[in-house]
Amino acid sequence: MEIIEHVKAMRDWSETQRREKRRIVLVPTMGFLHEAHLRLVREGKRRGDRVVVSIFVNPTQFSPNEDFGVYPRDFERDRRLLEKENVDVLFHPSTDEIYPAGYQTYVEVDRLSRFLCGGHRPGHFRGVATVVAKLFNIVRPHVAIFGEKDYQQLQLIKRMVEDLNLDVDIVGHPIVREADGLAMSSRNAYLTPEGRRAALSLSRSLRRAAWLVERGVTQARVITETVRAEIEAESLATVEYVTLCDRVTLDGIDEIYDDALLALAVYIGKTRLIDNTILKP
Fold first, then answer.
1. Strand (E) positions, the chain?
2. In the annotation, is 37 catalytic?
């Protein structure tokens, strides 16, 4: 596995692969890898000839009161995991390489950034869209793979690619869960044993919602109130939002007539977790 740290070197590598007609797949990450990331890598190997994994903890998607400074990092462990997966390139740029002195250009996907996490994390999705657009321009992948746990992010990137006529196919990968149902996340490392048990209320509440819909309940208020009550039964849990919305536009809905997204964000102690499911009437 080749480790590349500079934009020019990454572009030169990609240009060589493209001249040789090889299909490049990008898996963007912020590191501290777990099994869900590795599933994206394996999907990438099925979809292309060369796989690039980027590790970059992007400062522009964190607000001043968020966890950028303490976000979990372990580059050597990540490197070993990716080598075992036979990844072709680990792209690991510095902050100055991505945002050099004088940097002042940002990408904003207007409407999709207003909902769900966007309403609680001002500027977050501007940072996400900007760094992903830059990675696409640097790595020049034919395909990029993102996890569906960050469902809003996935929809936003699809919109950006379509609106800006970017030549990259966006693939969403289903949520990868622990055996007990907790969605895999780098932030799970923050959880205490008690918090870890309390966090199971997220996936448990989503299963409860699916059970209701299977039995004919379609009113958004009934579903979201049931989900909220399930989570708030845990003393360590504080609900940020529970929202039922259109799975593409993310507009809120009052009743399910077609497949709909149920999305939630919850603090377990000080750890913010997100999860979602598609409800099928």
1. 2-4, 24-29, 50-55, 89-91, 143-147, 169-173, 237-246, 260-268, 271-279
2. yes
Name the residue type at position 127: G
By the 8 A CB rule, do 198 and 182 touch? no
Where are the strands (E) in 103-191, listed by range? 143-147, 169-173
Domain boundaries, the chain: 2-173, 186-276
CATH classification code of 186-276? 3.30.1300.10
Q: Which of 6, 34, 37, 142 is catalytic?
A: 37
* pTM of model > 0.70: yes
Each residue of 22-40: pLDDT tens digit?
Answer: 999 999 999 999 999 999 9
Tens of pLDDT along 106-157?
A: 999 999 999 999 999 999 999 999 999 999 999 999 999 999 999 999 999 9
3-state SS of 223-245?
HHHHHHHHHHCCCCEEEEEEEEE
Tell me if the domain spanning 2-173 has CATH number 3.40.50.620.
yes
